[in-house]
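Cont'd.
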Amino acid sequence: MREPDFTLSAGPSPASARTLAALGSPIIDDHDPVFRDAFRRTEAKVGQVFGTENEIILMQGEAILGLEAAARALVRPGMHVLNLASGVFGKGMGYWLKAFGAQLHEIETSYAEAIDPAAVAAYLDEHPEIELLSVVHCETPSGTFNDCAAIGPIARSRGVLTLVDCVASLGGMALDPDAWQLDVCVAGPQKCLAGPSGMSLVAVSAPAWAAIEGNPAAPRASFLSLLDWREQWHGRGQFPYTPSVSEVYGVAAACDQLLAEGVRASIARHETAARACRAGVAAMGLQIWPASEAIAAASVTAIAVPDGLDHQAVRDHARARYGVMLADGQGAGNLVRIGHMGPTASGLNPAIGLMAIGRSLADLGVPVRTGDGVEAALAVLAAAARD
Amino acid sequence: MREPDFTLSAGPSPASARTLAALGSPIIDDHDPVFRDAFRRTEAKVGQVFGTENEIILMQGEAILGLEAAARALVRPGMHVLNLASGVFGKGMGYWLKAFGAQLHEIETSYAEAIDPAAVAAYLDEHPEIELLSVVHCETPSGTFNDCAAIGPIARSRGVLTLVDCVASLGGMALDPDAWQLDVCVAGPQKCLAGPSGMSLVAVSAPAWAAIEGNPAAPRASFLSLLDWREQWHGRGQFPYTPSVSEVYGVAAACDQLLAEGVRASIARHETAARACRAGVAAMGLQIWPASEAIAAASVTAIAVPDGLDHQAVRDHARARYGVMLADGQGAGNLVRIGHMGPTASGLNPAIGLMAIGRSLADLGVPVRTGDGVEAALAVLAAAARD
Amino acid sequence: MREPDFTLSAGPSPASARTLAALGSPIIDDHDPVFRDAFRRTEAKVGQVFGTENEIILMQGEAILGLEAAARALVRPGMHVLNLASGVFGKGMGYWLKAFGAQLHEIETSYAEAIDPAAVAAYLDEHPEIELLSVVHCETPSGTFNDCAAIGPIARSRGVLTLVDCVASLGGMALDPDAWQLDVCVAGPQKCLAGPSGMSLVAVSAPAWAAIEGNPAAPRASFLSLLDWREQWHGRGQFPYTPSVSEVYGVAAACDQLLAEGVRASIARHETAARACRAGVAAMGLQIWPASEAIAAASVTAIAVPDGLDHQAVRDHARARYGVMLADGQGAGNLVRIGHMGPTASGLNPAIGLMAIGRSLADLGVPVRTGDGVEAALAVLAAAARD
Amino acid sequence: MREPDFTLSAGPSPASARTLAALGSPIIDDHDPVFRDAFRRTEAKVGQVFGTENEIILMQGEAILGLEAAARALVRPGMHVLNLASGVFGKGMGYWLKAFGAQLHEIETSYAEAIDPAAVAAYLDEHPEIELLSVVHCETPSGTFNDCAAIGPIARSRGVLTLVDCVASLGGMALDPDAWQLDVCVAGPQKCLAGPSGMSLVAVSAPAWAAIEGNPAAPRASFLSLLDWREQWHGRGQFPYTPSVSEVYGVAAACDQLLAEGVRASIARHETAARACRAGVAAMGLQIWPASEAIAAASVTAIAVPDGLDHQAVRDHARARYGVMLADGQGAGNLVRIGHMGPTASGLNPAIGLMAIGRSLADLGVPVRTGDGVEAALAVLAAAARD
């Protein structure tokens, strides 16, 4: 089998040529002053992309590393933690929090819904023992998002720290750690930044550092340690371990491009792509997976697979016949996803995903008129371009 | 400051153009069948480079991740472990073993020496409670190596598992996990393979798996978990987390080149480079750091800095004036190192390192005749080429 | 303005990542034995792509160089030459032939038509003084092609040499220089091979060489000389001038990919793309530029722009609003072209071109239903995939 | 055979990673506004590198194309032309001038000498019928240069146009077309710019254009035509033929790097490399080929091969045994050349060439002490670094 013509899945996103060139640029020693400067500049760029004044930690390893590292750093055994579980990743975080010793509280919804901020406020008011709240901003597997702009201040005003999974939102959806009062934000470069997948981008607030430093269970002298990076690299100028030079260059290049475009412009582009995608889905007589457009993510559109068909069959068909790689729901349900992240949130890309899904469904016996979906998506793009 | 003309440090080594191209090749989704095949083929290649039948686990993160993961997986709290500490990395492993709950035994030497296998045998005979032995094959910081060919069978014959740090030897020094009866070997691609630094290459024997599976403290559901990779990826075909597509391609390309050359030929090339380097050092009136040539590594030559000078001054001078990046001893002593790893173990590269060090010393007031060193190194290369 | 999301013009085609990596691979000296071997292997590959036993000459410079070189080499002042002019490039060749001293005969048609082979036979029978016939296989600007399978034998049987411009057909349309008895075929790598644009790929038959060697006006000691390459490179192993190492590597990589796919499979893929494209055009109520499907090229589809609109406005709109780069007719008429060459002849690419044109026309006030075009194109692709 | 470890020949020079990345960047259509802007910016950069206000023409093809194009454009049949022949390229230009119809005058020297400007002045005074003078700035094959700073004004003051081959001097040797009153300068990117070899960089003065436009023999409608580029591209915004997108990007990147360093700094770097090289040659008891250091080029050092040995044997040995690619004299004599062009004019590179030649000679029986040569070269570099 040859490589797909188009990858419209939910990350790793197809990196731009410029990012790929950076990934393939010469590897120098991480002790070299040129690299150390490059690393520091990359941290600064990531901070700009986050739009935060918080300290940036770059760990080498997919964002799941950063999430585990942050959870381990924050959770003091016995600590009461509220976990918001509106999707696969939120649910998974709950297992971790418990395993790391938390007294786990959870607000749960169907994976087609988002968490109601009012419910969070009420729960926290009833449970003043809670010290930490964990939330996933964009629940990629089901294409929904939680309203962190509301949840952050609710937590902060009650003295509760927040741990936010922004992996699939950074760069593609509105996110403002400082204004939203979010304490630890963890993202990855392989989604809306369309960078390599091997780094965790972590922004940590001063109150979060205080909690981490006071936590005897926080990892130290470990690959999982945020503190090592703070103390050894930021404190003494020594990397706790060799970062991947290639990945750092790749992340820097991805940030450069996002910053050159402008974070706001990038987000607007993702939102347009998502609207086009959803318009196409509706015009084909299909349904998006999220319960409403209001909670649909800007970086990925999850589409319910019509009854009688399995998502795997649809995706395999689209891949084999039309060379388009789409994503499944990673356990969230019988759905297929069109990612619009980074370069694939540009121009006609969403319509390529619609063509692949629509025609695959038609091939598999579902009477879908793909042309109507494309027409509707193009109408959204046309209107957006005029603005 | 611009990038160095030549990087002759002790890793990350300068990757070949072909490896860089692989690192910069398009990023596809890790769920795509094309990538999954590529990942499996990469595992097989790593196995060939190791020359082992043992199961290969590729973790995303510098080799320090693999070492921590392996140590955590193997160490059952209260287990008696013998650690061989002949250098910075060996010493560091001891701290970890203890932190992970081991009853630590240690045989220690000066960092210019290697561990005597006879002492290991004697120690194990006196301490039948020991279940695990940890050893660093090549102690990069001080340029020495331990005789794993002897130590492995000593341990196996006494029912002791071995955890071997081969980070700086794989591909550049003789290593035979199966014949040498080594249980867990951890290497990195960024040294003699001249690949990217973001992966841990781990080879695990059946007895080691048995011990790990029986260890309740072995990490599970964690970035540090060898078991996750075994059970989820090898067992169910699911990656426990997104690997870095770029790094995997880079590692595969590095292995391809090494296998095309032949592992034996590569090792011979490293050995020649090391001999040339040592001949040059001697001819310049300098001294290698290891107590004898017999324990000097083939992948890196550590050179004692003459009294009255600090290694930092020498290295800074070589970098600033002559554009050559050399390595320090990472705490092992007042030494500078010339790496000959991968491409830099080829041809005249070692002589470039000699020129940089020799002339820098001369500039700093040490009466060294660089020309004599170069002449001696070239004589070794000339003789080797005739063979 | 940023780069287009999709380039669907008529060449240079977007090169694959593998071809780009080859273009960016290290530059070695052209005198190095490694490069000389690579050059020879590239010649052999080009011969395989052509499917010919004729001698291959690779000149450094866009195919226009090869065409000029071939025409200058073949035309003896005063020689009678029949030029077939069914498009912009055919017409242009006539000016050259005359300028180089030919007694020019011409069969001309509208640029929406192809030359009738019967007319060629008749003309040659009436004009036995003609020694050379010049024909363009694929007239890219107007999207038509001439039936070289018929014309070649007609010429050969009458002792007339043929000079064939295959620039836009090689690799994407049926072409068989030996069976079709074509004497000098000139192609470029930047069309259906999706290679770099800086080389001329020339295949020369033995009778053609005899004529060239006997032509005192054939260039010698010139950048335009085919004879220099034959005598100096093939004869004495010396390049007449430094080839571009990068371009040679790029051409080799492009050939490798085409040969791995298979020339026939590649052609079939181009033909399917063209059929899908034409079906879409018709379903949108538009018209292809060629007078009939029978003479429509497989590598590019020319589409008549509806009355009242200028092609430039349509193309500028598609480029600015939808990020799709389309081609004009280079003077052939008021038309826009969708190229399907190399990678863009794969999968859903033609439908992207249809979306860009359809929606642009709609935006500009032409009542086109793009969805119908996409639907029709997908139906062709779906049917083809089932075969 | 594998690729050389070091290419220290006389061009194509090893391009930097950044230039290679540019060569491997995505190919877009040459009609795209983004490319057209890039082309114009590249012309401007080339003008800055030349340091001239003259019009820049970029032709696609190795510099030999630009030289042929310029000579054909300038030579009116019957025109009296003075050719300065102090090397292989100068001599070759004479054949061309004659072939293009010139009444050829020639001042010739041994290929170890340069032309005396006073002799040029005297010759021109005696031959007022001469309208054009042709000179090679750096005679790469023999490592000498002609004093164009003196020759230019001598010609201009006598109303004689100049055609200057700067292929191997641009960017590495002092060159000032405007102050030196040079009319047509032709260079290539593959020497001191370390770019790709497939472009001709031509700077044309107003008086030269006047002569060309008035020359009925100047090529038009040809790959060899400077006028096409002026009239079609600069006049009407249309490329006369498709430029190689890859090469243009490569040239732009090479210029960017040279301009970032500064042309003067680059020249100083080349001069230091040349001095180090010559010092090494002398210290090894060898002789440079040029009759004196005063006429030795800064971009390449030609070294006489000791009696009894042939340059081919020395070069083959250096290449096979030590992985170093050196250059021959292209017919200028029994010599080997170390190129120091672009990146290879940096740092310890010249000493690598000395090691390869010295040790190869020793292996072949010539009693050369390479160490002395390296020592002497390093002394020059050390002194230069202190300045």
